[in-house]
Automatic annotation (TrEMBL):
Plays a role in repairing double-strand DNA breaks, probably involving stabilizing or processing branched DNA or blocked replication forks. This is DNA repair protein RadA. Belongs to the RecA family. RadA subfamily. PANTHER family: DNA REPAIR PROTEIN RADA (PTHR32472), DNA REPAIR PROTEIN RADA-LIKE PROTEIN (PTHR32472:SF10). GO terms for cellular component: cytosol. Residues 349-451 are annotated as: Lon-protease-like. ATP binds at G93, A94, P95, G96, I97, G98, K99, S100. The gene is radA. A motif (RadA KNRFG motif) lies at residues 250-254. The lineage of its organism: Bacteria, Bacillati, Bacillota, Clostridia, Eubacteriales. GO terms for biological process: recombinational repair.
Length: 451
């Protein structure tokens, strides 16, 4: 027997409460609690899918995951060489970023190579999707499209068509008739995902599910969604710029450190297999406050331009505005510059920007950022042409070695750079001929080399 009771569920984070409250105690969002009827079945509702007994790990046969090649190598890389058969992947991103475009292209590639693919859209009509398909040249015979939001009907379609790959665009539009709350509510999202997972795992179908993000940039719906699925991808980028970056937030079948870079073109998303080339497109001439730094995104070295602007201010609290760099890292570097080089920033506004919308985390860019700040405050260009700067900065002003330095130097050489400044302790191990390598062990030394 199932009996029902109502609870109040936070639509931002999934927190549940028996009483209505104005502010969610879990995520501190106001007015997010909505009453939902919750079915409590006496049996848990979960039935075992296999009759297996516990056995020693040595007696379990392992097999390499069977994967679909998506035909898009940037996507393959992010997933860990393709989509694992029977896996559940969530892809999130702001509206208009290109999720539907990427998935329609992927669906078409898989349909061409492996057979039937079902693209279920709750947001667009079949005609709209066809128009997009025409534009993307994603119109293969085995690609099936349906505009549907009712989960029971969707299950029937899957039963009839027997696809190898299903796309659900988006989870927030789905609803189960047996649940009274509105589509997109936490209960609906949770129950629909549960069903999708059951269908995927029992029929060995791979699913891609599109999920919207909230105003705060978090995945809408309960956190449980992230725990249930195998892989969580996030599609990011500025809508005004054409570059898009695909990241893995979680991956049961590979690392989470790889990124995929795309450009939104007139006929769909185009892969960028050499990101340094696009992020550096407009550099090549010397500018005040501009330095090229190198970072590692997964196994890939990427060179990006970092720009600093320092201007005097009379404000009591000078501004520190950063895009693409961690602000606490900037503060640390400013403190080192003030203390070790006696360059005063306390009466200056500081703006830092990473060109191209990439996020620089980690410490590889420390030295480059420090040099760009000095270049701007002194209004002096960097004195070395075609220069790459990498290195971590310590609190005493020392330059610490970084990992993968050889890869970054190779990338710089490939991109036609003439000079690199790297940590002294990395220099011994690098044997590049085509590029002038300058090893430095302190910030002072680096400053002397370039100004
Ligand atoms: P879309 O995939 O619909 O975004 P999402 O599903 O994440 O909301 O992409 C929408 C944007 O992409 C839209 O503003 C137009 C642009 N676009 C192109 O520039 N070229 C194309 O070929 C397509 C299909 C879309
Ligand atoms: Mg869409």
């Amino acid at each position: 027997m199932a009996k029902s009771k109502t609870t109040f569920v936070c639509q931002e984070c999934g927190y549940e409460s028996l009483k209505w409250i104005g502010k969610c105690p879990n995520c501190n969002v106001w007015n997010s609690m909505v009453e939902e009827i919750k079915k409590v079945s006496v049996s848990s509702g979960i039935s075992s899918t296999s009759n297996s007994l516990p056995k020693s790990i040595l007696n379990i046969k392992s097999s390499e995951y069977d994967r679909f090649d998506t035909g898009i190598s940037e996507l393959n890389r992010v997933l860990g060489s393709g989509i694992v058969k029977g896996s559940l992947t969530l892809i999130s991103g702001a509206p208009g970023i290109g999720k539907s475009t990427l998935l329609l292209q992927t669906a078409n590639n898989i349909a061409k190579k492996y057979g039937k693919v079902l693209y279920i859209s709750g947001e667009e009509s079949e005609e709209q999707i066809k128009m997009r398909g025409d534009r993307l040249e994603a119109i293969s015979q085995e690609l099936y499209i349906v505009s549907e939001t009712n989960l029971e009907k969707i299950e029937e379609h899957i039963e009839n068509i027997k696809p190898v790959f299903v796309i659900i665009d988006s989870i927030q539009t789905l609803y189960k008739q047996s649940i009274t709350s509105a589509p997109g509510s936490v209960s609906q999202v949770r129950e629909s995902s549960n069903d999708i997972m059951r269908i995927g795992k029992t029929k060995n179908i791979s699913f891609f599910i599109v999920a919207h993000i909230t105003k705060q940039g978090e995945l809408a719906g309960p956190r449980v969604l992230e725990h249930m699925v195998d892989t969580v991808l996030s599609f990011e980028g500025e809508r005004t710029e054409d570059f898009r970056i695909l990241r893995t937030m979680k991956n049961r079948f590979g690392t989470t450190s790889e990124i995929g870079v795309f450009e939104m073109k007139e006929n769909g998303l185009e892969e960028i297999s050499n990101p340094s080339a696009v992020f550096l497109e407009e550099t090549g001439f010397q500018k005040e406050g501009s330095v090229v730094i190198g970072i590692m995104e997964g196994t890939r070295p990427i060179l990006v331009e970092i720009q600093a602007l320092v201007s005097e201010t009379k404000a009591v609290m000078p501004r520190r505005t950063v895009v693409g760099v961690d602000s606490s890292r900037l503060n640390l570097i400013l403190a080192v510059l003030e203390k070790k080089l006696k360059v005063p920033f306390y009466n200056c506004d500081v703006y830092v920007n990473v060109v191209g919308g990439l996020d620089v985390d980690g410490t590889f860019g420390d030295l480059g950022l420090a040099l760009s700040l000095i270049s701007s405050i002194k209004s002096k260009e960097i004195g070395l042409e075609n220069l790459l700067v990498v290195g971590e900065l310590g609190l005493t002003g020392e330059v610490r070695p970084i990992s993968f330095c050889d890869r970054l130097v190779n990338e710089a050489e490939k991109m036609g750079f003439k000079n690199v400044i790297i940590p002294f302790r990395n220099k011994e191990k690098i044997k590049s001929k085509g590029i002038n390598i300058i090893g430095v062990s302190s910030l002072k030394e680096a400053v002397n080399k370039v100004f």
